[in-house]
Amino acid sequence: MHADNLPPLALTCGDPAGIGPEIIIKAWLARAEQACPAFYMIGDPRLIAARARTVGATLDIAEVEPGNAASTFGRALPVVPLTHGISDNPGRPDVANAAGTIEAIDRAVADVFARRASAVVTAPIAKKVLYDAGFRHPGHTEYLAHLASLRTGRPESAVMMLAGPALRTVPVTIHIPIAEVPRALSSELIVATARIVANDLGRRFGIGRPRLAVAGLNPHAGEDGTMGSEDAAIVAPAVAALRAQGIDAFGPLPADTMFHAEARATYDAAICMYHDQALIPAKALAFDEAVNVTLGLPFVRTSPDHGTAFGIAGKGTARADSLVAALKLAARLAATELAAT
Predict the structure, then answer these.
(1) Fold of 1-158+297-341
(2) Which of 41, 78, 214, 329 could join 72 in a cystine, given CB atoms 3.0 to 4.6 angstroms apart?
(3) Percent of residues, the chain, with pLDDT higher than 90
């Protein structure tokens, strides 16, 4: 299959009480102006119609099968209906909607494996709503790895990357309390994460020899052990192991001096030790343009870098910039990977 003939993107609606429905509407309405790749939404057509009325948007909606989405995209928002109904209550998350939220993710993954979709793009979910419904995975990323494992029959490891125009960051530990980070870190985990990053930067981003800057855990990267032993005992051996494997990694580096423009020019991705160490600089530099990319999976998945934003849902003020960036990046990565095969 030629890259120009890739199937459309499968886009999930996310938590229906959040801004997902309206940023999808805005992305479709701006499809020509923003040069959006073709996508179809997996969700409830009635929800989209209701949210469009709430935010004062005018659009046509077409219920389709994935195979008809590309030909429909130019004239109507293609929606593949769920079997679970979803209610439209902006700003008021409801556990009753969890089944539909999960179904949309399941179907998007099924579509990409069946080559009905070229990649998966997900609108933000609210983990607590899913937890209250019995969901047992830490988050989107881990659940996607689980679904991929069921399809491939082997364990799949997923890594979260925030990718913006000027910075890519990867947290080694993700959704755990900060107090648990030192116990969760290991040289093996850092090496495994960085290897996935290096591989996908080459395979999907087209970077021939990725340069990885590895952050220290402690202030000043431990300052020779005076501010913690983890950088010398865990991070430095991981960097040495990566270099021994032919990966251009360096560190541990003091995190407070890694993210200014001159420093960013020396690497292709920053490997960070915990969630906020990676996400704060990425979002500070490009909150409306950064994209959450899942690396290590046998398919491309992207998502906006923001959450459900329940506080502004239904008010028509949510911006679709990050979703548009996620759609564009997903299409580019899928095409790059195809061209490399």
Answers:
(1) Isopropylmalate Dehydrogenase (3.40.718)
(2) 78
(3) 86
